[in-house]
Amino acid sequence: LLAAKQNEEGCFGTEGYRRNAAVVSLAGLAFMANGSAPGRGRYGRNLNRCVSYLLKNAQEDGFIFAPGSTARGPMYGHGFATLFLAETYGMWRDSDVRDKLSKAVKLIALTQNDEGGWRYRPERREADISVTICQVMALRAARNAGVFVANDTVDRCTEYVKKCQNADGGFSYMLPNDESSFPRTAAGVVALYSAGIYGGDEIA
Protein backbone atom coordinates (compact mmCIF):
# COMPACT_ATOMS: atom_id res chain seq x y z
CA LEU A 1 0.00 0.00 0.00
CA LEU A 2 2.77 2.48 0.90
CA ALA A 3 4.69 1.69 -2.26
CA ALA A 4 1.57 2.26 -4.35
CA LYS A 5 1.02 5.67 -2.75
CA GLN A 6 4.56 6.96 -3.35
CA ASN A 7 5.07 9.67 -5.94
CA GLU A 8 8.02 9.80 -8.33
CA GLU A 9 9.64 12.58 -6.29
CA GLY A 10 9.59 10.32 -3.21
CA CYS A 11 6.72 11.71 -1.11
CA PHE A 12 3.36 10.04 -0.52
CA GLY A 13 -0.30 10.63 -1.37
CA THR A 14 -1.93 13.54 -3.16
CA GLU A 15 -2.93 16.10 -0.52
CA GLY A 16 -2.59 17.21 3.09
CA TYR A 17 0.67 15.92 4.55
CA ARG A 18 1.89 14.37 1.29
CA ARG A 19 5.15 16.38 1.20
CA ASN A 20 5.78 16.11 4.94
CA ALA A 21 9.31 14.92 5.86
CA ALA A 22 8.02 12.82 8.76
CA VAL A 23 5.62 10.89 6.52
CA VAL A 24 8.39 10.14 4.01
CA SER A 25 10.78 9.09 6.78
CA LEU A 26 8.32 6.81 8.60
CA ALA A 27 7.36 5.17 5.31
CA GLY A 28 11.05 4.66 4.58
CA LEU A 29 11.57 3.05 7.97
CA ALA A 30 8.64 0.72 7.22
CA PHE A 31 10.32 -0.37 3.97
CA MET A 32 13.51 -1.05 5.94
CA ALA A 33 11.63 -3.01 8.59
CA ASN A 34 10.32 -5.20 5.78
CA GLY A 35 13.91 -6.13 4.95
CA SER A 36 14.80 -3.73 2.14
CA ALA A 37 17.82 -1.42 1.92
CA PRO A 38 18.58 1.48 -0.44
CA GLY A 39 18.73 -0.03 -3.92
CA ARG A 40 18.27 -3.58 -2.60
CA GLY A 41 15.28 -5.74 -1.83
CA ARG A 42 11.63 -5.52 -2.81
CA TYR A 43 11.34 -1.84 -1.83
CA GLY A 44 14.89 -0.75 -2.60
CA ARG A 45 13.77 1.70 -5.31
CA ASN A 46 11.14 3.16 -2.98
CA LEU A 47 13.81 3.68 -0.35
CA ASN A 48 16.03 5.43 -2.87
CA ARG A 49 13.19 7.85 -3.59
CA CYS A 50 12.69 8.51 0.13
CA VAL A 51 16.40 9.25 0.57
CA SER A 52 16.53 11.50 -2.49
CA TYR A 53 13.48 13.45 -1.36
CA LEU A 54 14.92 14.14 2.10
CA LEU A 55 18.38 15.04 0.80
CA LYS A 56 16.81 17.41 -1.72
CA ASN A 57 14.91 19.13 1.08
CA ALA A 58 17.80 19.33 3.54
CA GLN A 59 18.45 23.05 3.99
CA GLU A 60 21.94 24.55 4.17
CA ASP A 61 21.72 24.93 7.97
CA GLY A 62 20.85 21.23 8.34
CA PHE A 63 17.09 21.62 8.81
CA ILE A 64 15.18 18.96 6.87
CA PHE A 65 11.91 20.51 5.74
CA ALA A 66 10.11 20.71 2.40
CA PRO A 67 9.12 24.35 1.77
CA GLY A 68 5.37 24.67 1.37
CA SER A 69 4.63 21.33 2.99
CA THR A 70 1.99 20.84 5.69
CA ALA A 71 3.52 20.25 9.11
CA ARG A 72 1.96 20.31 12.58
CA GLY A 73 5.44 20.85 13.98
CA PRO A 74 8.45 20.90 11.63
CA MET A 75 10.82 19.53 14.29
CA TYR A 76 8.84 16.29 14.36
CA GLY A 77 9.67 15.90 10.69
CA HIS A 78 13.30 16.85 11.24
CA GLY A 79 13.68 14.31 14.04
CA PHE A 80 12.17 11.46 12.03
CA ALA A 81 14.13 12.47 8.93
CA THR A 82 17.39 12.46 10.90
CA LEU A 83 16.50 9.06 12.35
CA PHE A 84 15.77 7.68 8.88
CA LEU A 85 18.98 9.08 7.37
CA ALA A 86 20.97 7.62 10.27
CA GLU A 87 19.48 4.18 9.64
CA THR A 88 20.17 4.65 5.93
CA TYR A 89 23.79 5.61 6.54
CA GLY A 90 24.19 2.58 8.80
CA MET A 91 23.65 0.31 5.78
CA TRP A 92 24.77 2.57 2.91
CA ARG A 93 27.94 4.62 3.43
CA ASP A 94 27.04 7.40 1.03
CA SER A 95 29.00 10.66 1.50
CA ASP A 96 26.02 12.90 0.70
CA VAL A 97 23.89 11.09 3.28
CA ARG A 98 26.70 11.47 5.83
CA ASP A 99 27.05 15.19 5.12
CA LYS A 100 23.32 15.95 5.41
CA LEU A 101 23.00 13.69 8.46
CA SER A 102 25.87 15.43 10.25
CA LYS A 103 24.33 18.84 9.58
CA ALA A 104 20.94 17.59 10.80
CA VAL A 105 22.51 16.39 14.04
CA LYS A 106 24.28 19.72 14.54
CA LEU A 107 20.98 21.56 14.08
CA ILE A 108 19.38 19.40 16.78
CA ALA A 109 22.22 20.22 19.16
CA LEU A 110 22.11 23.95 18.38
CA THR A 111 18.34 24.22 18.91
CA GLN A 112 18.22 22.41 22.27
CA ASN A 113 16.66 24.84 24.74
CA ASP A 114 17.84 25.74 28.25
CA GLU A 115 15.64 23.04 29.79
CA GLY A 116 17.30 20.40 27.62
CA GLY A 117 14.46 19.68 25.19
CA TRP A 118 12.94 20.74 21.89
CA ARG A 119 9.58 21.89 20.53
CA TYR A 120 7.85 22.50 17.20
CA ARG A 121 10.34 24.78 15.50
CA PRO A 122 14.17 24.84 15.31
CA GLU A 123 14.35 27.52 17.99
CA ARG A 124 15.74 27.53 21.51
CA ARG A 125 12.46 28.42 23.20
CA GLU A 126 9.94 26.01 24.68
CA ALA A 127 10.23 22.22 24.93
CA ASP A 128 7.80 19.32 25.16
CA ILE A 129 8.39 15.62 25.64
CA SER A 130 6.82 14.47 22.36
CA VAL A 131 9.15 16.52 20.14
CA THR A 132 12.06 15.77 22.46
CA ILE A 133 11.67 12.02 22.05
CA CYS A 134 11.93 12.41 18.27
CA GLN A 135 15.25 14.22 18.63
CA VAL A 136 16.80 11.82 21.15
CA MET A 137 15.85 8.80 19.02
CA ALA A 138 17.49 10.53 16.06
CA LEU A 139 20.64 11.28 18.07
CA ARG A 140 20.90 7.66 19.24
CA ALA A 141 20.56 6.37 15.68
CA ALA A 142 23.16 8.87 14.44
CA ARG A 143 25.62 7.86 17.15
CA ASN A 144 25.04 4.19 16.32
CA ALA A 145 25.86 5.01 12.69
CA GLY A 146 29.14 6.64 13.68
CA VAL A 147 28.17 10.31 13.59
CA PHE A 148 29.44 12.46 16.45
CA VAL A 149 26.89 13.39 19.11
CA ALA A 150 28.12 15.39 22.11
CA ASN A 151 27.58 13.75 25.50
CA ASP A 152 26.44 17.09 26.91
CA THR A 153 23.51 17.21 24.48
CA VAL A 154 22.34 13.76 25.58
CA ASP A 155 22.92 14.48 29.28
CA ARG A 156 20.88 17.68 29.19
CA CYS A 157 18.09 15.93 27.31
CA THR A 158 18.07 13.12 29.88
CA GLU A 159 17.72 15.61 32.74
CA TYR A 160 14.81 17.29 30.97
CA VAL A 161 13.00 13.98 30.48
CA LYS A 162 13.55 13.02 34.11
CA LYS A 163 12.12 16.35 35.28
CA CYS A 164 8.98 15.65 33.24
CA GLN A 165 8.26 12.54 35.31
CA ASN A 166 5.52 12.83 37.93
CA ALA A 167 5.28 11.12 41.31
CA ASP A 168 2.90 8.50 39.86
CA GLY A 169 5.63 7.35 37.45
CA GLY A 170 3.98 8.89 34.39
CA PHE A 171 5.31 11.77 32.32
CA SER A 172 3.90 15.23 31.69
CA TYR A 173 3.82 17.05 28.37
CA MET A 174 5.82 20.10 29.42
CA LEU A 175 7.42 21.81 32.41
CA PRO A 176 6.11 22.80 34.88
CA ASN A 177 4.58 19.36 35.18
CA ASP A 178 0.99 18.66 34.26
CA GLU A 179 -0.97 15.38 34.41
CA SER A 180 0.50 12.07 33.29
CA SER A 181 -0.71 10.16 30.24
CA PHE A 182 0.06 6.75 28.75
CA PRO A 183 1.45 8.00 25.38
CA ARG A 184 3.75 10.52 27.06
CA THR A 185 4.91 7.90 29.54
CA ALA A 186 5.78 5.52 26.72
CA ALA A 187 7.67 8.38 25.06
CA GLY A 188 9.51 9.14 28.28
CA VAL A 189 10.67 5.55 28.70
CA VAL A 190 11.80 5.35 25.06
CA ALA A 191 13.69 8.63 25.50
CA LEU A 192 15.56 7.25 28.50
CA TYR A 193 16.29 3.99 26.68
CA SER A 194 17.56 5.96 23.69
CA ALA A 195 19.86 7.88 26.04
CA GLY A 196 21.29 4.58 27.31
CA ILE A 197 19.35 4.41 30.59
CA TYR A 198 17.89 0.92 30.87
CA GLY A 199 17.26 0.69 34.62
CA GLY A 200 16.82 2.76 37.77
CA ASP A 201 14.03 4.50 39.64
CA GLU A 202 12.65 6.38 36.63
CA ILE A 203 12.33 3.22 34.52
CA ALA A 204 10.81 1.25 37.40
Give an overview in words:
The chain is an all-alpha fold and 204 residues long. It is 52% helix and 0% strand. The chain has eight helices and no strands. It is globular and about 50 Å long. The protein starts with a helix and ends in a 10-residue tail after the last helix.
Largest sheet: none
| Secondary structure tally, helices | 8
Helix content: 40-55%
Strand content: under 5%
Question: Structural class, from helix and strand content?
Answer: mainly alpha
Low-confidence segments, ≥5 residues, pLDDT <50? none
Order of helices and strands: HHHHHHHH
Mean pLDDT, to the nearest integer, reads 95
The global form is globular
Computed CA radius of gyration, to the nearest angstrom: 17 Å
Question: What distance lies between the first and last C-alpha atoms, to the nearest angstrom?
Answer: 39 Å
How many strand segments? 0
Overview features:
204 residues; mainly alpha; 52% helix
Concise summary:
With 204 residues, the protein is mostly helical. Helix content is 52%, strand content 0%.
